[in-house]
Specification:
Blueprint lengths: L3 E12 L3 E11 L8 H10 L19 E2 L2 E2 L8 E4 L1 H12 L10 H17 L2 E5 L17 E8 L5 E9 L1
Antiparallel strand pairs: 1-2, 2-8, 3-4, 5-6, 6-7, 7-8
């Protein structure tokens, strides 16, 4: 039996002038044995049409756009989700938000949802991943003119009943 996913909640918080943090939490349905392995859950998520979303146009999840961020869905590889620690998640979020190329970093109010999500993942004991595609990934759509920042993270609750996808973007 395949796993199924449903959106619990989606929030988008502005960052910078054209930047944002998009956080979506999904309920993962299916037998506990199917949810045991994080990579299996992520692979099932990527196979499910619900994983389709461009993030540039904050449309609904699963709108059959054949893309997940800057990647073609049929070529996105689950192994590109690399496991990281919650401490590394916090560091990567701070690196993205404090990038010296931005003359004005996000203010404290804008940062709070991003950093709060990282703290909640740590407190709950989530397994955390960063989408770390190779530079010349064949799945990547040539949209570098659209995104100057695209950082995607995933977290899975310890019981694998919830998946969160967090994206920091600037377009």
């Amino acid at each position: 039996m395949a796993l199924s996913f449903s959106v619990i909640e989606t929030t988008m918080t502005p960052l910078w002038d054209f930047g944002w943090f998009d956080l979506t939490q999904f309920k993962v349905d299916g037998p506990a044995a199917e949810r045991r392995d994080c990579y299996h859950v992520l692979a099932e998520f990527l196979r499910d049409p619900i994983s389709q979303r461009s993030f540039c146009d904050p449309g609904q999840w699963g709108e059959s756009i054949q893309r997940h961020g800057p990647f073609l869905c049929d070529r996105l590889v689950v192994e590109w989700f690399r496991p990281i620690t919650c401490h590394q998640l916090k560091e990567q979020i701070r690196a993205a938000l404090d990038d010296p190329e931005f003359t004005v970093p996000p203010n404290i109010e804008q940062r709070e949802p991003v950093e709060g999500w990282a703290a909640a993942a740590r407190a709950r004991g989530d397994d955390v991943f960063v989408l770390d595609a190779p530079d010349q990934a064949e799945a990547k759509v040539d949209w570098d003119f659209v995104w100057s920042v695209y950082r995607e993270f995933a977290s899975l609750s310890p019981d694998r009943e919830e998946l969160a996808i967090g994206v920091i973007g600037y377009d």
